[in-house]
Structures are given as structure tokens and as C-alpha cells.
Amino acid sequence: MKIDVVTVFPEYLSPLDLSLIGRARQRGLIDLDVHDLRRWTHDVHHSVDGAPAGGGAGMVMKPQPWGECLDELVPGEDRPRLLVTSPAGRPFTQAMAHELAAEPWLLFACGRYEGIDQRVVDHASSRMEVTEVSIGDYVLFGGEVAVLAIVEAVARLVPGVLGNAASLDDESHNAGLLEAPAYTRPAEWRGHEIPPVLLSGDHGKVDRWRREQALLRTARARPDLLERLEAGSLDKRDRLL
Ligand code: 6GU
């Protein structure tokens, strides 16, 4: 998978050199390039922003550097999926992570200030699939941290990136429920015990317990997820709750 990230703060993306993402890049599974938007400015101050049309606070990113950047990074027939970060975007979810993991090429445009001139998105939409994306209902200074989160969520779904593909199976959000709590030895620590069922060796009982814990946790922390579960995904023993 090819990933390009365009930002005015390339150093902000340096964590992508580390850990599992860094290893996936070294192994050639992910070909990631970070570009400085200021490369496509022509004035001495390398300015990328201007006052908002219509007035108001903050600054808006100018269309010109973005336009020339996209022209240069997308010169031919091959088109990336363009992801424009914005608190006004579509909410990023595990389902979208799966969708993006199936794309051959992702291009992230990091919005800063009060966002990017909307004509950049409107123009790019005639040449490629564009998605404005948000990572949650709060406001960040810019999209760089959002891109770190999205790239990490997507990269671990790319075949070969994760050592143990089984851990992708029953993790949080896959079945629409949060994961059950996890424990490791010692069996007792500071007066707290590992729930005995987990040490019983009875895999049926362990699965049942995990299912109940997942339902309880979801009911407490994310009741909105329980409401969205399809009727068929609760079995009759789940009604105990
Ligand atoms: Cl993608 N960008 C900004 N600036 N703030 C956000 C966000 C993105 N997602 C949540 N808050």
C-alpha cells in the first residue's frame, strides 16, 4: 500500500518511523512518504494561509499550494483515495479502517488553522474519490494527529503487518461490542484475583464469560453500540443481562 501525507508540520508525523509501522515500511508492506506543503509555495514567506472570506476568526489554507501539490503527486492515470482531515468530516471507524486497508493508495491532506479552502475538495472530487474525515467530536489544531491514528488503524489491517492475524478476529468493535477485560499471571496481585473461569481450562465457559463481559462493558461504556447491534447478533443466553 502506498501512503502519502501532506502537512505543514512533517516532523509531526515522525512517529510513523517507529515500532510496527516503521517495521512494515522497512519490510516494504507500506510505502509512506511525508511531504511539506510549503514546497508548493512561491512567495518568500512560504505562506499557506489567508483570512477567511466573509470574515471571522482564524485562517484558512489557500487553494493554490494544495492544487499544485495534488497535480504533482497525482500526475497520471492512477488515482489515490484522498482523505482530507477535518473536524467536520465523516467519523473514522473500524469499518472505514477496513475500507481504507483495501485501497492501493491513500493520500492524506492535513488541514490546519480553520481548514482548507473548500474548492480544493470540490476540484479534487472531479479527479479522485475524496473523503473528509474526522477522528472524533473534539477539535485539534490540525489533522496530523488524526492521520497518525488513521494510518495506525489501517496499517495493522494490511496483510502481513501484524504478526498474529488471529488477534484481528475478536477484538473491540469487530462484533460491534467492546472486548472483555484481559489478565495475565500472577493469579493474584495486590489482593485482586484473575477471574477463576479464565484459569479453568474450559474454553466453552471462557468464551461464554468473555461474551457476557463484552456485553456488560458495552452496556456501561457505550450503550449507543448496544442499541445499534442487529437483532440477530444477540443470542438467547445474552438475555440473562
Ligand atoms: Cl481530522 N482535524 C481536526 N483539526 N480536529 C479534529 C479532527 C480532525 N478529528 C477530530 N477533531
Automatic annotation (TrEMBL):
<dbReference type="Pfam" id="PF01746">
    <property type="entry name" value="tRNA_m1G_MT"/>
</dbReference>
<dbReference type="InterPro" id="IPR029028">
    <property type="entry name" value="Alpha/beta_knot_MTases"/>
</dbReference>
<keyword id="KW-0949">S-adenosyl-L-methionine</keyword>
<feature type="binding site">
    <location>
        <position position="111"/>
    </location>
    <ligand>
        <name>S-adenosyl-L-methionine</name>
    </ligand>
</feature>
<keyword id="KW-0963">Cytoplasm</keyword>
<dbReference type="InterPro" id="IPR029026">
    <property type="entry name" value="tRNA_m1G_MTases_N"/>
</dbReference>
<feature type="binding site">
    <location>
        <begin position="135"/>
        <end position="140"/>
    </location>
    <ligand>
        <name>S-adenosyl-L-methionine</name>
    </ligand>
</feature>
<comment type="similarity">
    <text>Belongs to the RNA methyltransferase TrmD family.</text>
</comment>
<dbReference type="InterPro" id="IPR016009">
    <property type="entry name" value="tRNA_MeTrfase_TRMD/TRM10"/>
</dbReference>
<keyword id="KW-0819">tRNA processing</keyword>
<dbReference type="InterPro" id="IPR002649">
    <property type="entry name" value="tRNA_m1G_MeTrfase_TrmD"/>
</dbReference>
<keyword id="KW-0808">Transferase</keyword>
<comment type="function">
    <text>Specifically methylates guanosine-37 in various tRNAs.</text>
</comment>
<keyword id="KW-0489">Methyltransferase</keyword>
<comment type="subunit">
    <text>Homodimer.</text>
</comment>
<protein>
    <recommendedName>
        <fullName>tRNA (guanine-N(1)-)-methyltransferase</fullName>
        <ecNumber>2.1.1.228</ecNumber>
    </recommendedName>
</protein>
<feature type="domain" description="tRNA methyltransferase TRMD/TRM10-type">
    <location>
        <begin position="1"/>
        <end position="227"/>
    </location>
</feature>
<dbReference type="InterPro" id="IPR023148">
    <property type="entry name" value="tRNA_m1G_MeTrfase_C_sf"/>
</dbReference>
